[in-house]
Amino acid sequence: MRRVILFLAGVVGVAVGSAVLFVPAVVHESSETGLVETPGVLSEIRAPGAALVVLSAFILSGAFRPHLARAAALLGAALYLSYGLARAFSIVVDGAPASGVLVAMAAELLLGAACAYVVIRVREPVVA
């Protein structure tokens, strides 16, 4: 189960991060947020995409390297739950977004909870 969860969390993050990095207009169009395509705005959007790719690659590595599994799951839980909970906070203070954003929030919360489950189940210490 650990390997499946970390594999899915890693692949999803690499895919989403790559899309944000390489085709940000498509990502924003799918979430119905609109995108002002100026160099500064695109830079602000692409940078988190690159970070998501790198962090997700580490999460993915935990599926294949047992000694990294707990650290990868901890990172996955922090990453996905922070995204999902931030979206939930935004709903409270800003109102409901488009359905695509709600689906993303549900997926983030599910992946974050699954990664947290792995953290709890894996008994090896977190590698520093």
Summarize the helices and strands and which ones pair or pack.
Blueprint: H1 2-22, H2 24-30, H3 39-61, H4 69-94, H5 99-121
Helix pairs in contact: 1-2, 1-3, 1-4, 1-5, 3-4, 4-5
What does this structure look like?
The chain has five helices and no strands. The protein has helices at 2-22, 24-30, 39-61, 69-94, 99-121. It is globular.
What keyword list fits this structure?
mainly alpha
Q: Could you give a short description of this structure?
A:
The chain is mainly alpha-helical and 128 residues long. The protein is built from 5 helices and no strands.
Largest sheet features: none
Class from helix and strand fractions = mainly alpha
Low-pLDDT stretches: none
User: Strand portion, in percent?
Assistant: under 5%
**What's the SSE pattern?**
HHHHH
Q: What share of the residues lie within helices?
A: over 70%
Q: What overall geometry do the principal axes of the alpha carbons give?
A: globular
Q: What is the mean predicted local confidence, pLDDT?
A: 92
Strand element count: 0
Rg, rounded, reads: 15 Å
N/C terminus separation? 24 Å
| Number of H/I helices | 5
Q: Quaternary arrangement of the chains shown?
A: single chain
